[in-house]
């Protein structure tokens, strides 16, 4: 039985077309409630909630109460690590940032922190690649230890626009970290672009002939969070996956949900991700009924 709570990522109202005039967080809460969402996944870039904007336990309690006043929960937190690329920065710098985010999440009752590799995909020498890979794995293992101590898990969102965007690389990295509090965030659009199109991969392309279902099967046992969005097979600004309207792209959600049911049915939250999409206000209203219908068809 698939009956997840469905959230929407607040970054959709802050990045790309909204960068010059981000929606205030309260407006997003109002929208999420009206559009039938159960919760919000918080973008950790100002002007949306950050540890600096909500520096005290009392200010965070007030934020939590505001979110709950709209009948909403929190599915996760996506903080800013842009100043500390984990494959090459000092581990201590990364962990210092992470500690502040863990405390923030603990105060808000959030149990999931989203991360990425920060660095863009690039052709590295074998020696440099292996050095960066080993450093990244050690940094994220130490991160998982810190998170686990507070009952929090870290989920890595792979995507075409960041380093390690081939299916085998994703599998290798999560296995190298080898910690139960470190898992993969499986985004249907990124999985299509990375695993089916092979977008922005360096060297020889690596694709999954069985589509995103095969990609998910490759990561069996390692998927800890789920983002839903369609893909039209293109990149946004030649950087990362275009997040298309549900039903307008290449993802067969009925088939995907049917095949991934054992994985995603146990998840409390699924998050809708309309990042960089100018039509999120309209298309975001259509997302919840679309997903609920796809669930029924896949059962």
Kindly summarize this structure in a few lines.
The protein has 299 residues and is of the alpha/beta class.
Task: Tell me the overall shape.
Answer: globular
CATH homologous superfamily assignment:
Divalent-metal-dependent TIM barrel enzymes
Order of helix and strand elements from N to C terminus: EHEHEHEHEHEHHEEEHEH
Helix content: 40-55%
Q: For the largest sheet, list the strands in their spatial order.
A: 3-2-1-10-7-6-5-4
Q: Low-confidence runs (pLDDT<50, min 5 residues)?
A: none
Number of domains: 1
**What is the C-alpha radius of gyration, as a whole number of Å?**
18 Å
Main sheet attributes: strand count, strand direction, barrel closure: 8 strands, parallel
Shape-level CATH architecture? Alpha-Beta Barrel
Strand content: 15-25%
What structural class do you assign from the helix and strand content? Answer: alpha/beta
Quick one: how many beta strands? 10
Distance between the termini: 7 Å
- Total of DSSP H or I helical runs spanning 4+ residues: 9
Q: Output mean pLDDT.
A: 97
CATH T-level topology:
TIM Barrel
Give the class-level CATH name. Answer: Alpha Beta
How would you characterize the overall build of this protein?
It contains nine helices and ten strands. The protein has about 300 residues and is α/β, with parallel strands linked by helices. It has a single domain, classed as TIM Barrel. The strands form two sheets. It has an eight-stranded parallel β-sheet with strand order 3-2-1-10-7-6-5-4. Strands 8-9 form a two-stranded antiparallel ribbon. Helix 5 links the parallel strand 5 and strand 6. The termini are close together. The mean pLDDT is about 95.
């Amino acid at each position: 039985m698939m009956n997840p709570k469905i959230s929407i990522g607040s970054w959709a109202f802050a990045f790309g077309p909204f960068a010059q005039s981000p929606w205030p967080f309260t407006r997003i809460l109002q929208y999420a409630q009206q559009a039938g969402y159960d919760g919000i996944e918080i973008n950790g870039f100002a002007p949306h909630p950050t540890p600096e904007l909500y520096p005290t336990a009392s200010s965070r309690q007030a934020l939590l109460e505001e979110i709950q006043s709209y009948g909403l929960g929190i599915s996760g937190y996506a903080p800013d690590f842009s100043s500390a690329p984990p494959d090459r920065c000092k581990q201590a710098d990364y962990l210092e940032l992470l500690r502040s985010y863990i405390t923030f999440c603990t105060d808000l009752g959030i149990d999931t922190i989203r991360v990425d590799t920060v660095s863009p995909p690039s052709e590295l020498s074998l020696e440099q690649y292996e050095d960066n890979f080993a450093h990244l794995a050690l940094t994220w293992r130490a991160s998982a230890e810190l998170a686990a101590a507070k009952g929090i898990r870290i989920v890595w969102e792979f995507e075409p626009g960041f380093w390690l965007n081939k299916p085998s690389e994703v599998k290798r990295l999560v296995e190298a970290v080898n910690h139960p509090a470190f898992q993969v965030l499986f985004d249907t659009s990124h999985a299509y672009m990375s695993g089916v199109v092979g977008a922005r991969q360096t060297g020889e392309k690596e694709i999954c002939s069985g589509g995103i279902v095969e990609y998910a099967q490759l990561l069996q046992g390692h998927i800890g969070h789920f983002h839903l969005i369609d893909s039209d097979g293109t990149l946004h600004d030649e950087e990362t996956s275009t997040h298309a309207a549900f039903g307008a792209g290449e993802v067969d959600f009925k088939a995907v949900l049917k095949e991934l049911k054992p994985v995603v049915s146990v998840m409390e939250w699924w998050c809708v991700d309309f990042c960089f999409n100018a039509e999120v206000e309209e298309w975001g209203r259509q997302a919840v009924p679309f997903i609920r219908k796809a669930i029924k068809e896949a059962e």
